[in-house]
Amino acid sequence: MNFARILRHLTIGQWMLRRAFPATTLASIEQTIQQSEMSHSGEICFAVEGALNTFALIKNQTARERAIEVFSQLRIWDTEQNNGVLIYLLLADRDVEIIVDRGIHNKVSNEELENICRTMESAFRQQQFGAGIIQGIHTISQHLKMHFPYDPMQDKNELTNKPMIL
Questions:
Q1: Closest Cα to residue 99, out of 80, 129, 72?
Q2: Per its UniProt record, what InterPro entries does this chain match (predicted)?
Q3: Domain limits at 31?
Q4: Tell me, what CATH number does 52's domain have?
Q5: What count of other Cβ atoms lies within 10 Å of the Cβ of residue 94?
Q6: Does the predicted model carry a pTM greater than 0.85?
Q7: What's the mean per-residue pLDDT of the chain?
């Protein structure tokens, strides 16, 4: 059991989430997702969680495991073309995970997704949360444009563009 991690999670509150992601930053992220989705048929969802609950900490749940749960709970896997993407940030750990649906998984390597995560985490270390997420959205969008081009006749917005605060 990692007591330092547990203490960090117990001391993160909603105030830290609001400080890292004020309303203006959340609006910018939403607008970036909306604009991005006009250039490809993929569906991007951003979710941020301040800290894990005590039970998850005791069981030593990783950010990746939690991101997979969130991917399922938000039904990101349920898009018509199997091209949903979750960008998940666990603020207490400053850990980003990108979970992609099977349609994308076959086209974009785990290494490429990890590189996007590490770039975002680098921005977070400099307290640039909004800029880090927006850069990550742009990078993911480049992959989606290549593999899932926009089709105005068939494309519809299947997932909310609004950032999810968990």
A1: 72
A2: TPM_dom
A3: 3-165
A4: 3.10.310.50
A5: 16
A6: yes
A7: 92
